[in-house]
Design a protein that fits this description.
This protein has 19 helices and 27 strands. It is α/β, with parallel strands linked by helices and about 625 residues long. The chain has three domains: about 240 residues, Glutamine Phosphoribosylpyrophosphate, subunit 1, domain 1 (4-Layer Sandwich); about 200 residues, Rossmann fold (3-Layer(aba) Sandwich), CATH 3.40.50.10490; about 160 residues, Glucose-6-phosphate isomerase like protein, domain 1 (Rossmann fold), CATH 3.40.50. An eight-stranded antiparallel sheet has the order 3-2-4-1-10-9-11-15, covered by helices on one side. A hairpin with a 4-residue loop joins strand 16 and strand 17. Helix 9 runs parallel beside helix 13. The longest helix has 22 residues.
Length: about 625
């Protein structure tokens, strides 16, 4: 979690850093801080709460500086307050540092430094690292770069750091291990640093993604020098950003989440653009082409992910098994990595991740790789850590997702998994030509059908009004609509703080049915298909206990319409593609309920968009 922004060059650092921190607030928003270096010295300002608090606090302060480091925090060690906010400064006031990640052995280093007489001001692991660098530099007289290098050799854990020193005022030094860091290269030795490219894109499109164990010195006179762990200098690999500034703005919507929900007709289309042609009856995912033979022969495919991405994996399981007849298991990355799983070179592990930075998913992938499995990725963020360590993969091309609650990333993940399943089914001969052609045409029609559902926004908002006061909610679905129920429940709880559970509809009578009374809204996916009648029976069971029933049904449905308190019609489609449509009303319902409850939709409490700590 946590977002880092830094700058050194010929411009005023303050506004670049503060603007960048606002773009990164999705990574953490419990406190923020900035340190600025000018010809007079170093000024550090820190404030609990959002970046706006920091801005207000610094209004009457000296904000000048040609170099600076900034941070927005999601607390790991120590409560969110001004003292624990970054940057942290060495005891002698010379060195200052921002950090994303966790220093696991910070306690022992801290005790050792306390033994040498140092007194710490904060509870953080970051301050310990700052003091360690300072201690090494003072005791050995080495330059800042060498001191950082030596300090990092003592550190166990994950970090992306930016360090600045009054003694060496023309440089900032950056280093990375397991936490992302991007360096933007401007004109005339102007350097921008950030946890992702979003704060950089408006200044330069030339970027270098730091790899693990790399340290870079960014000098406003001498340019950039990149080193590996053995202090051997390397040539930086400069890439061109494909990101556009307008993708990072709200574009007239009240919240990023609403904008992202409404972007789905476009993001789904972007996801299959150039990868599918219904008229010519082909589907092709260039990124994984050379692994497809291996995939159809694989012992099994394991999908690993967290949160919403895990729900997309569950939909993928239905698609791969039913269409391509490949054995699939879907695992929470955090459980998989600690379970001593049985994996070998015949297994294929697919990591699904919007950010491509989720710590548990990364670690699970590394474990699978070490056991010889082929590792593939389905990521949204181009150049992210997961997309870089995998053997191959397919991007979801949904564009930046800023709202903490995942919406368009989910439908894009499901779209990629559908394309994969279809491509593998064709190759393996487990789908007949007619079904294949029908599914491709249906998939091509999905964006326009999503739009039809989005056009029902006002109708959905009226339903939301009636349930904004609920304390609990149940979501039910069968087959590939079960993950949609899980996803619907997650959306509601994470942004409106209403307790919600997703269940397979038939499981309801094994426990959750005890919760149902006239106060309990039950959201059900009851679209036409093989399990329709079974779901209708489950609906009757809810109504018999006076539960309030809100059903997502296929247009033209009469049976559920007559029983339910509310129905939301969605267009008819192939049963495999229902998750892409059925999830949209739940996203809108959760959004409106959260807004009506005055919740912070884009930045819900305690959450961060990319979870880069375990
Ligand atoms: O970036 P990832 O897809 O790996 O993130 C996984 C989860 O942290 C994420 O889906 C989370 O559950 C969202 N807040 C859900 O809306």
């Amino acid at each position: 979690m946590c977002g880092i922004v830094a700058y050194i060059g010929n411009k005023e650092a303050y506004s670049i850093i503060v603007k960048g921190l606002k773009r990164l607030e999705y990574r953490g928003y419990d406190s923020s801080g900035i340190a600025l270096l000018n010809t007079e010295g170093l000024n550090t300002y820190k404030k609990q709460g959002k970046v706006a608090n920091l801005e207000a606090f610094t209004e009457d302060k000296d904000r000048s500086g040609y170099a600076g480091i900034g941070h927005t925090r999601w607390a790991t060690h120590g409560p969110p307050n001004d003292t624990n906010a970054h940057p942290h400064t060495s005891e002698d006031g010379n060195i200052t540092l921002v950090h994303n990640g966790i220093i696991e052995n910070y306690d022992s280093i801290r005790k050792e430094l306390e033994g040498k007489g140092y007194t710490f001001k904060s509870d953080t692991d970051t301050e310990v690292l700052c003091y360690l660098i300072s201690d090494i530099k003072t005791k050995t007289g080495v330059k800042l770069g060498k001191a950082i290098h030596l300090a990092l050799q003592q550190v166990v854990g994950a970090y992306a750091i930016v360090v600045m020193s009054k003694d060496e005022p023309n440089k900032i030094i950056v280093a990375r291990k397991s936490s992302p860091l991007v360096v933007g290269i401007g004109k005339d030795n102007d350097f921008y640093v950030a946890s992702d490219a979003t704060p950089i894109v408006e200044y330069t499109k030339q970027v270098v993604y730091l790899n693990d164990d790399e340290i870079a010195i960014l000098n406003r006179d001498k340019g950039m020098k990149l080193f590996n762990i053995d202090e051997v200098q390397k040539e930086p690999y400069v890439e061109e950003l494909e990101l556009h500034l307008e993708e990072l703005e709200k574009g007239g919507y009240e919240h990023f989440m609403l904008k992202e929900i409404h972007e789905q007709p476009r993001s789904i289309k972007d996801c299959f653009r150039g990868r599918l042609n219904a008229e010519e009856a082909w589907v092709s995912l260039g990124g994984i082409k050379e692994y497809e033979q291996k995939m159809i022969k694989a012992n099994r495919i394991i999908m690993i992910a967290c949160g919403t991405s895990w729900h997309a994996g569950l939909v993928g399981e239905y698609l791969f098994e039913d269409l391509a007849r490949i054995n699939v298991e879907v695992e929470y990355a955090s459980e998989f990595r600690y379970r001593n799983p049985i994996i070998n070179e015949n297994d294929i592990v697919i990591a699904i991740s919007q950010s491509g930075e989720t710590a548990d998913t990364m670690a699970a992938l590394e474990l699978a790789k070490s056991k010889g499995a082929t590792i593939l990725g389905v990521c949204n963020v181009v150049g992210s850590s997961i997309s870089r360590i995998t053997d191959a993969g397919s991007y979801t091309h949904a564009g930046p997702e800023i709202g903490v609650a995942s919406t368009k990333a989910f439908t894009a993940q499901v779209t990629v998994l559908t394309l994969m399943a279809l491509s593998l089914a064709k190759l393996k001969g487990t789908i007949c030509e007619t079904k294949f052609r029908t599914m491709l045409s249906e998939l091509e029609a999905i964006p326009q059908k999503v739009q039809q559902i989005l056009d029902k926004n006002d109708e959905i908002k009226l339903i939301a009004e009636q349930y904004q006061g609920a304390s609990n909610a149940l979501y039910l679905g069968r087959g590939s609509s079960f993950p949609v129920a899980l996803e619907g429940a997650l959306k509601l709880k994470e942004i409106s703080y209403i307790h919600a559970e997703g269940y397979p509809a038939a499981e309801m009578k094994h426990g959750p049915i005890a919760l149902i009374d006239e106060e309990m809204p039950v959201f059900v996916i009851a679209t036409s298909g093989p399990s329709y009648e079974k779901v209708v029976s489950n609906i009757q069971e809810v109504k018999a206990r006076k539960g309030k029933l809100i059903a997502v049904v296929t247009e033209g449905d009469q049976q559920v319409h007559d029983i339910a308190d509310h129905t939301i019609d969605i267009p008819d489609t192939d049963e495999h593609l229902v998750p892409l449509l059925a999830t949209i009303p739940f996203q809108l319902l959760s959004y409106h309920i959260a807004v009506m409850r005055n919740c912070n939709v884009d930045q819900p409490r305690n959450l961060a968009k990319s979870v880069t700590v375990e």
